[in-house]
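Title: Comparing notes on inverse folding

I've been comparing how different people in this forum approach sequence design from structure. To keep things fair, I'm posting one structure and asking everyone to reply with a full sequence. Here's the target:
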């Protein structure tokens, strides 16, 4: 097996636009979410753009369980440098930016701090260890200028742990037990994920007041009147009862109103009643439209607000329903365009034609109009595809050419180690390996990801198109909309050197095609093309 593993030949005919898309001068003119490439990063672990906000730990954290200096400015710097452009990234998803707990807690793996963003202390404030509101505005503006969308992580299910400096929210807001047993719907929702992670009572029908500790915090920060007035206006406009999750929906959608973010990646979806997410999406649409009205020149295109959900252990083969054992829930009908696909890391071990066929039949069958987000590694999956980073070229080829949305986890493109000396999921969360990218082998790997990513970005048939198997080594993809006709031919398993590919009638005699992997141009002659390169991947598009 070569490190490139497969030979890919792609041939596209492009039109001039896609449904519901207003072309952006710096983005893909044919963007559809179903073909998106999403770059997922832990904000604190990506790039340090501002040393002044580096956090000094009051007590030393366990390995890789404290803050390491990454921040919002660091993301913006890499956006402006063109790092994401070169990878063909359409959207950046980052871990939560809201204020997390003040100090560390021992969660069984040593002293841990909330560097990851999932231990919320205050949904109404940006964590100063990561940056400021102005930093977020600058980041969104920089991303939008380049046609890149911003996804933020949204958490409603729980607050952060209780510490000597972070009090428990009132009993009418949270529960501290029992632990989830996952024996059915109720034992997955009305429970806590782990000890000392208070669970929001999203099922509560009781109106609640603001937590006294939160009001005292706002008052000390000089913003209590503003926050309370905004809440009063929200509840007056919507008519919603003052139940716990409605408050959090208001606070999360403020991120859209303030910054113009383009979507949410929603955390712990199955641990909260599905109607919560429907309300979140409806209010997100309202907030997004409101932002666009006030910023008519800053939106990338005409796409609606986007939501992708983390339903832990959702598999694409389940179609639209997640089965709790005693109840099936269709999250796609409750605000979600896409769900994270926990099946891909297993499917990625199968032959290409099996994976492509399976995903085509499901995405254009029971999941028509929706999608899944595939990944090879993530921040909390301890058994990713190729954890040892031994098949890094193949990982890129499989991830970026499989139908559906592709999620790159920071460092996938440069083989960042997933086996650092730490316990639990901390092994997946080392700092971005920027210094390794100058190594010739890492640079070659990065270039492989970039070529595939760029080609995917410019051709929606890859992720959103129909798959047609031509023979054992070739298949076609087709994507059509009102203004776009996109056709692809792929050849797999070829060897370096001359490669003869049958066009199978998808192109006409004399068409000039460019191989975007080697840079050479070829002409269709007698229903075939010949590429003579030292690479075992060919990416052809019509000139």
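Reply #1:
Here's my take.
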């Amino acid at each position: 097996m070569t490190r490139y593993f497969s030979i890919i030949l792609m041939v596209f005919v492009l039109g001039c636009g896609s449904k519901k898309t207003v072309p952006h001068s710096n983005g893909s003119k044919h963007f559809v979410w179903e073909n998106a490439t999403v770059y997922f990063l832990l904000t604190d672990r990506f790039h340090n753009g501002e040393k002044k906000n580096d956090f000094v730990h009051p007590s030393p954290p366990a390995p890789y369980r404290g803050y390491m200096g990454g921040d919002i400015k660091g993301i913006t710097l890499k956006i402006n440098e063109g790092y994401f452009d070169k990878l063909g990234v359409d959207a950046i998803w980052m871990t939560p930016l809201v204020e997390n707990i003040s100090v560390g807690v021992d969660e069984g793996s040593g002293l841990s701090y909330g560097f990851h963003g999932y231990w919320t202390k205050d949904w109404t404030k940006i964590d100063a260890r990561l940056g400021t509101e102005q930093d977020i505005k600058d980041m969104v503006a920089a991303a939008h200028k380049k046609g890149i969308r911003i996804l933020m992580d949204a958490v409603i299910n729980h607050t952060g742990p209780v510490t000597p400096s972070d009090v428990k929210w009132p009993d009418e807001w949270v529960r501290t037990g029992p632990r989830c047993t996952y024996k059915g719907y109720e034992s997955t929702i009305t429970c806590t994920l782990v000890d000392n992670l208070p669970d929001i009572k999203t099922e509560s029908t009781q109106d609640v007041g603001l937590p006294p500790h939160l009001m005292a915090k706002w008052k000390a920060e000089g913003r209590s009147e503003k926050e309370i007035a905004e809440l009063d206006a929200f509840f007056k406009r919507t008519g919603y009862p003052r139940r716990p999750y409605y408050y959090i929906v208001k606070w999360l959608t403020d991120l859209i109103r303030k910054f113009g973010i383009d979507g949410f990646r929603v955390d712990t979806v199955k641990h909260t009643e599905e109607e919560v997410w429907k309300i979140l999406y409806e209010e997100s649409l309202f907030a997004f439209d409101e932002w666009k009205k006030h910023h008519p020149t800053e939106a990338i295109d005409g796409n609606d607000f986007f939501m992708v959900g983390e339903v832990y252990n959702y598999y694409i083969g389940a179609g639209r329903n997640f089965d709790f054992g005693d109840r099936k829930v269709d999250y796609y009908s409750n605000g979600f365009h896409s769900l994270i696909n926990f099946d891909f890391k297993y499917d990625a071990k199968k032959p290409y034609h099996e994976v492509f066929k399976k995903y085509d039949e499901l995405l254009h069958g029971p999941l028509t109009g929706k999608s899944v987000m595939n990944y090879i590694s993530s921040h909390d999956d301890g058994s990713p595809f190729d954890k040892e980073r031994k098949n890094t070229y193949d990982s890129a080829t499989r991830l970026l050419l499989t139908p559906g949305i592709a999620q790159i986890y920071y460092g996938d493109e440069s083989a960042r180690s997933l086996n650092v000396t730490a316990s639990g999921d901390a092994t997946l969360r080392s700092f971005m390996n920027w210094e390794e990218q100058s190594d010739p082998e890492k640079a070659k790997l990065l270039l492989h990801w970039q070529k595939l990513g760029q080609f995917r970005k410019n051709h929606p048939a890859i992720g959103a198109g129909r798959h047609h198997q031509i023979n054992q080594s070739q298949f076609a993809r087709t994507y059509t909309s009102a203004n776009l006709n996109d056709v692809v031919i792929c050849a797999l398993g070829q060897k370096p050197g001359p490669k003869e590919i049958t066009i199978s009638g998808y192109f006409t005699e004399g068409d000039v095609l460019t191989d975007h992997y080697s840079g050479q141009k070829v002409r269709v002659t007698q229903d075939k093309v010949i590429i003579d390169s030292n690479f075992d991947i060919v990416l052809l598009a019509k000139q």
